[in-house]
Input
Amino acid sequence: MKKATKSDIETIKKAFIENYKDAKTELNYKNDYELLIAIILSAQCTDKRVNIITPALFEKYPSVKELSVAKLDDVKRLINSCSFFNNKAQNIIKMAQSVMQQYNGVIPHNQKELIKLAGVGNKTANVFMIEYKQENLMAVDTHVFRVSHRLGLSDAKNVEKTEADLVKKLKNDELHIFHQAMVLFGRYICKAVKPECKKCYFPQICKSKAGFKPA
Output
């Protein structure tokens, strides 16, 4: 697969900034607690589905305090239409317990501290920091992985190396914009199946229509 040239990269960056400068996550949330829960639930699940699930969840457990003492079966029942709901129910309760015990009930706004919480990996922590703090970070989900490979920004086989490629090639203080841009561009235009190439901002740069997935 051909790699994006320096000129290609500048074209990509310009188009993403022009079209997605003010882009935000499509997850519904009111505070950092709700955002973190929504991101954890969104793993291998659509934002649309998460937004259907979370209102009842947040009504019953409005903060980490209530969630930390929740019964596992009750949480499972509220999120059972979400993928991997058994593991996610356990993780969000453990996460709430850790926040209560180690952070006095306050969600940490630090990537390294977030990763210590149950259910929070590097991608989840980065997405949280990008959305809530507009941190200069990149997070790679299935959309970002696919778009980055189709545009020749990375040929890495896994998420970690793809993230490193994107940080290196899109290097500037607006990585958070590029993350949001690639998610939305991949979700609505550069789709895994039947990409809408007529709506693409840079068809001359696209290297492939293959539906790339992390190894």
Summary: Residues 85-102 form the longest helix (18 residues). The chain is about 55% helix and 0% strand. The mean pLDDT is 94.
